[in-house]
Amino acid sequence: MKMKTSICFVLLLLFSVSSAEDVNVKVKGVTRIATTDENFICATLDWWPPNKCDYDQCPWGEAGIMNLDLFNNILINAVKAFNPLRIRLGGSLEDQIVYQFGEQEDCPIMEKQSDGLFGFSKGCLPRKKWDQVHEFLNKTGVKFTFGLNALNGKENSKEDKENWVGDWDPTNALSLMEYSISKGYKIDSYELGNELCSGGVAAKIDSVQYAKDITQLRNLVNLLYQNANTRPKVLGPAGFYSKEWFDSFLENVGHGVVDGVTHHIYNLGSGNDKDLINKIQDPYYLSKVAQTFKDVSESVKVFTPRAGAWVGESGGAYNSGGKDVSNTFVNGFWYLDQLGMTAAFNHKVYCRQALIGGNYAMLNTTTFIPNPDYYGALLWHRLMGRNVLSVSHEGSSFLRAYGHCSKKEHGITVLLINMSNSTTFRVSLVNDMHTDKEGGSSDAMREEYHLTPKDGNIQSEVVLLNGTPLKLTQSLDIPEMNPKLVDPSSTIKVKPDSIVFVHSKSFRAPACS
Asked: What is the predicted pLDDT for the residue at 434?
């Protein structure tokens, strides 16, 4: 019996030992395949009150904008670290919010209401809260997108309760803009409505009507903001893509009206899906959304080439994300893969739901301590430049690879994501222009940033950088994130369940010169 147990143990050991695979990652550095905005990384703030609950849990706490402690030091430091971070304030309840400006003197508090949109009554943004929001934005240097209520002036269609008809009434938005201009508040962009396009979610607007409404917003912005250099951008339609609705909207909107075509992504399904982790680590499943990114990008190119495609909101799993999944290390396989994929499909901006609030928050909803995806986003923001390069390999599909010109220095930065829990990939970067690896001889050391989960637990809320846990400093600042310096002639060892950013200064790419 003892003998049998020993044999079983040895066999188990043999099977559990991780394998290794050599992979040549080919980078085409002659031309770029796409460009992103300088501030591609974006995070959202939302309107949800504490009693927003799904699956018998209420994960928003005090993180909705009406309750959020905007003067929390960790929050301020986390946002300032991006220098700047792009933030979008919007979400499901946005089309029920009025603003306490102009003739809107009373300011109702949003409450649960069974027949209200998303189960809530109308609410109001008080002038004092708007001032506090801008105090926070000024302090942190944020590039700010504000989502406007697109249902003002509209009413339900008698034939279809979810269909809202009539022209948008811009009076309340006009009052908010006039006040903001009088106070010198900086707004990067205005977005009209939330998830009202295609089939809608709780409400919908016809594509031709929406084109008319957003043209009215454009005219309003042009009228109020005289200086074209500092004029806010106009974004829309901020919902889920369907070719018919989007093409009709873009055909009817006219050139120069929209600066960013925003669409939303929740491609992992519901937050309570027991299969969530398997989906996140399944390269085939993750690739299914690529067609959407391609289609949106092509529609924009055909109908409004001056505008860019944006992912305006994306939380992975809907209804506030997956508990003990969306806020942990494993979610980075989905999130960073999304960043790489959308950039390659010529998307300009990617807004992660949410900076704080829900299970998918980048900062812990109660302590504000950064979750693993915060650090992944910050490394992307600091390392990945605007020019996107073609990257490919013929190895396992569990190794994802994306490449950009480096942001501030010479060379390229490659993102390598190893979704396998048993295989180490020994990666060589191959320059498509040369037969030599890493594209040229140089004394410059290669910089590597290896992200792994604490104790090898992919559901850990603690991420290690080159083996050291990333923790706030004693003064509650974001820690320094220094690379490991490696001889460029050696291979890049991408361990199982790890994410690696590689900055190669010696890689000669004409697209990056």
From this structure: 74
Residues 123, 260 share a domain: yes
- Which of 371, 386, 401 is the C-terminal boundary of a domain? 386
Left, alpha or beta for 351 (phi > 0: left; psi -120 to 50: alpha)?
A: beta
Res. 37 pLDDT band, cuts 50 70 90: very high
Q: What is the pLDDT of residue 433?
A: 85
- The 10s digit of each residue's pLDDT in 168-190 is 999 999 999 999 999 999 999 99
- To the query of whether residue 409 is one of the catalytic residues in this protein, the response is no
* Residue 459 maps to a domain: yes
- pTM, full prediction: 0.96
Catalytic entry in 94, 191, 313, 447: 313
Residue 155 among the catalytic residues: no
Type of residue found at 52: K
CATH number at residue 112: 3.20.20.80
State the burial class of residue 31 (Cβ atoms within 10 Å of its Cβ: 0-12, 13-18, 19+).
exposed
pLDDT at 280: 98
Which of 94, 195, 447, 448 does the annotation list as catalytic? 195
Residue 468, Cβ neighbours under 10 Å: how many? 10
Per the structure, the complete domain to which residue 166 belongs is given by: 36-386
Last residue of a domain, one of 333, 353, 386: 386
